[in-house]
């Protein structure tokens, strides 16, 4: 073994035994027999004890089996986030089938694609959900939850024993596809059990815990918000949509419901870290993931922050680690280390391990690997490759498309996506580097950086940030970033948002980030309008070149996103408008509209005197 491979082998020595004699449905039933009166799930409008949850799931599972559901049969669940959602998912598992979450908020075309792609045996809908019931009929059978008219064989009150093995499917969750079509990720009971037992061990989950269910049902984080707790006898609590959409409201709800463990998407977690918390509270763990974490917790945070990473193709979580306060501010928080029975390899283009500290592509192996994509043999061959580091037959690695590097202590630093780099004026830029700095500015809760193409065809960086601080100014933000970053990495505009738009996966939906306008951008405290005819024309030229609605006479051309190429266009426009030849050096030395106008007026006067 090469000396450089020794620590990698040690860091990947994650083998740990876990019980494999019962699958999830059996574990939940076991809890129901132990503590039938204990609280299992609760929302604003409904609570279910373990006995009630188990009984209702048994009844529904019997109906599903009567409709032909068994091992490997796929059952769609199109229900809102609610205790009913858990009843339905548990019933599918009890019947021996695999559940397919179909988020009721998805566009109709996406729902139809999933229905046809899965070749569902049964689709579960709610009797009062008009939108879901507008879905067209298909080869699947529709089961209306709460309706009692479906025939059930007499004398059967519990589902028949289902011969489910660890290799059978537990659920199929769809992710966005690079081809433009969603891909159904097939997760087996082995992967789900490994996740459950690691989660319960790593976070010391007991029956006394109260967990939140925040993620959308179609996002795989919902899997670990539910099953680790219900198999341990803990309770799962649902905040309503308005509450989970606001960091302040969610904080107040977590305190009111005495939640002890909560998962929230990264953008929400970064906002929660900026809020005030009481010194003593039930919450002991805030779990986050789905996007890149850029913020460290403050030293007085009364609970632990855990950063998690994992593609859907690897059963929710592949690496995890505690984020300590104010450690390594010059780099973003790590994504921790591999979880139990999961291996992480950071490889070069030849699938060779890169040295510790160097960047490579992240590959994942172990018990969490999905069976593959549903009905996608070519994509399976590309994404799930033979494991060159294993002697086991048919062992595979998943190619994530993520860039990472091992840190000297064995933690993993996430660098970015292979396809997320942006190029502006010839410079390659990692947006995460800018976000990390911007998030350290006082009052900024969370931020995103996007390269937008303006009408002129030029690209410029735009920062989107969530902040309650009303005194932020563009020039102050730019000056701060310029003290750490080169000019070409300083955003030209800053847009304030109430919250980041999120996909069902918990990632920021960049397609919904609005274009900068005069009403949503953060400007300087004092806007000075043009005062002379020359200033009005110069401001108009700058606004057209930079794609900005409003330019003040004291605004800096370069701070607004200008550069030398646009500077030459500015000189050409000035020549056409004023019949003067501005040297390019003047644009650098006198970059504000007022200074440029003054120089143009001086040159006009000089030319006039010379003509006389």
What does the model show?
- The strands form seven sheets. Strands 11-12-13-14-15 form a five-stranded mixed beta sheet. Strands 16, 17, 19, 20 and 21 form a five-stranded antiparallel beta sheet that branches.
- Among the domains are: 422-512, ANL, C-terminal domain (GMP Synthetase, Chain A, domain 3, 2-Layer Sandwich), CATH 3.30.300; 533-611, Non-ribosomal Peptide Synthetase Peptidyl Carrier Protein, Chain A.
- With 612 residues, it is of the alpha/beta class.
- Helix 2 (24-34) packs across helix 3 (50-66), helix 7 packs across helix 8 and helix 15 (533-546) runs antiparallel to helix 16.
- The model is unreliable at 147-152 (pLDDT under 50).
- The protein is built from 18 helices and 26 strands.
- It starts with a helix and ends with a helix.
